[in-house]
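[09:14] KT: can someone run the structure on this one? pasting the chain below
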Amino acid sequence: MARRCELTGKGVMTGNNVSHALNRTRRRFLPNLVNVTLISDALGRSVKLKVSAHALRTVEHRGGLDAFLLKADESELSPNAQALRKEIRAALAA
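[09:31] RB: done, structure tokens below
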């Protein structure tokens, strides 16, 4: 998954550059992606993810990676994050 946040699904948007003469040319708005290593308390290990800066703030606000994944919508998560969510649920159930 190139240029897409693994936790929120935020991706590339398109729009126009508009000059002073109102000439319009297409452009791309890229998300602010950061490669981070987050620690899962339930699994007791670290996980490498490519997330947006906004998602990183949200993870911290919700109380960590485990809390974020358990509360997140399944459709927004990448396959990697969905597998991680499944592991966390299994670890918490045991």
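[09:33] KT: thanks! Strands lie at 13-18, 24-29, 33-40, 45-52.
[09:34] RB: yep, looked fine to me
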